[in-house]
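Reposting from the mailing list since nobody answered there.

I have sequence plus structure tokens for a pair of proteins and want to know whether others read the tokens the same way I do. The first protein:
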Amino acid sequence: PIPGKRNAYCIIGLRAGLGEGGGHGWLLAQQIVHGEACYDTWCIDPRRFTSHANVEMTSLKAIEDYQNEFRFHFPHEHRPAGRPAKTTSLTSVLAAENAEFTVVNGWERVEYIKPSADFHPSLSFHFDETFDIVAGEIKNVRDNVGLCEVNGFNRFEITGPDAYDFLDRMFCGSVTRKPGRVGLGYLLNDFGMVKSEATIANIPASDRGENRIWYGSAAASEFHDMDWLTQHINYNEKVQIQSLTNDQTILLLAGPKSRDVLSACSREDWSKEAFPWLSVRECFIGFSAATVMSVSFSGELAYEVHVPNASLYAAYLALSEAGKTYGMKLFGSRAVESMRMEKG
């Protein structure tokens, strides 16, 4: 489906239209007639690209693709056309710390911290020169504490008197309704196939707003999940969904000393009794308003610090200053991916 269009469908990303047209046309026809294809069609779904993928960028990427038609695309090779498309106030700050960037849904996201500004690993299908660098980042998270910017994470705010009944119908498991708690769930289609995975965070009413639910999922699912959710709101349900994806950024604090760092820059009680696993609360990091969740994809004690982009730099400075005492270092997405695989 084409995002934002009713009864409009297309397949994009093909390089041999005539040769592949029969099979892809068959899958497209299934979507039009039945609403779903028999195979996963995400790799050719136009909704995997979001607002940054305009005509100008598409032209640059198409030219780059044909220029490299007979070259292998290596792991961790990030080609330069159409970059940088999306950045935060920390992008230049982290670049000054020798950050190497990958691209996630157009966002420049830290991949790892280079040992020097002129460091360039070889492109290979084997382990390259970054292996020990990433291992060092993981070791510091395991033994001390690390900080990572996770920008572009998909974030919807769901409100309305029927919000919980709507989510109970959409998720295949029960959705927690307890204030200040976080849950994980899966959205399925009519064939029982997974459409999305999302966290649900129940934020109690405060001076920042009424009771509301935060829905979080992968960056690339921004358009896809919004389509799936909005098209399933019944005509008599009072549910509102607002995207905060481009308004908030996560600072991920991970490691056994992460609670100490958080306590040093926020006056809340961060003990495990006051703020247990799978909790969410609004607070201040330094003087910056933030929403913190006690969740982890690293296998270590960790907190997601969600900060409005306008005060992101201030929150980063507060955490960085607090982390000096505890050996805090920056880490990137490669370390995150390695740790989450080990966690299982």
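The second protein, same order (residues first, tokens after):
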Amino acid sequence: MDSLGMTGNGNMNGQKSGLHESEVIEADRESGYFSRGAGSISPASDRQREEPSEIFVPSEQKAVVTPCMGKNLNLTVQTIGVDEPGPGEVLLRIHYTGICRSDATFSVGPKKGYPSHNHIAGHEGIGEVVKAHDPALLGKLFGLRYLGSSCGSCTYCLRNLPTSCPKQSNAPKQIQGTFQQYARVPLDALVALPETIMNGDIDPAWYASALCSGSTALVSLRAAKLQPGDIAIVVGIAGAIGHLTGMIAKNVLRVKVIGIDLGSKIGDLMSVHHDFADVLLEAPSPHDDQLWSKFHADLLETCVQLRGGHGVERAAEAVIVTSSELSGFQRLEEYICDGGTIVCAG
């Protein structure tokens, strides 16, 4: 990430640094790590190679930093040093990083476990290893997400709930965040990515969302155990997690999707919702019994229509709540049929 800049899709985007025509691996005898160096190679017929002319990694970088945590956001772009990786760590050059709403939450306080000064947020990063103790890692592509690592042996990990592990490490809590050009990261906190995503037809910046909102959406849908043709209600469909939940449900799982959100948000989506929802409904106040009764009747009628009038009249097979509003978590049992599933994402 050669420059820190915002793109229209909400990602911190920097163009990938161009490597020299040929590359060599240079070992630092004192520190014991390997770095990706740059040199030039003569034509193959000469079978000669020039010695490395420079170290590829700079000593300084640009980063978005919170100098001092407080009640309000206090983000500044600063020039800071580039850290050297220690044992079990690598230095990752960040090519793309998403911006999550949680990053704003992580940058005020500080909350327990977060640094009070010089905090660097960001947990949706895609980058390339440029320094490592193992030279085989150089050039490999990895993702850095919020859950860096967990113990794997506690009761939560054994029940496939690693996000509740008391010994977990997180970005940007114990691990440096991705709002910088180079991040020093424990190797066990990284997710290996196929290098083909950097050369495909899809802008790699889009993959950054898969490391947070996308993975949350996928885990929620797996918990719902939906079958093709089932109906899923997504509460909070206008948000990032809700939007991706509906998109995966409809286009991958072949589930019928009813999206629910506040009227102020639904109105803007009416003409563009077909990729992530079959029907959009405005959320009523759960405390107004008259409005709720009308909404519930409309919801049941929508379910009947989506099923083509076939089968027993019933509500949805699952409701997935991705909303950040307390009202979104109320009266959920009335969204689903007997045997249905309630999933609360977050």
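Reply #1 (J.P.):
I read it the same way you do. Confidence is low (pLDDT under 50) at residues 1-30, 37-55.
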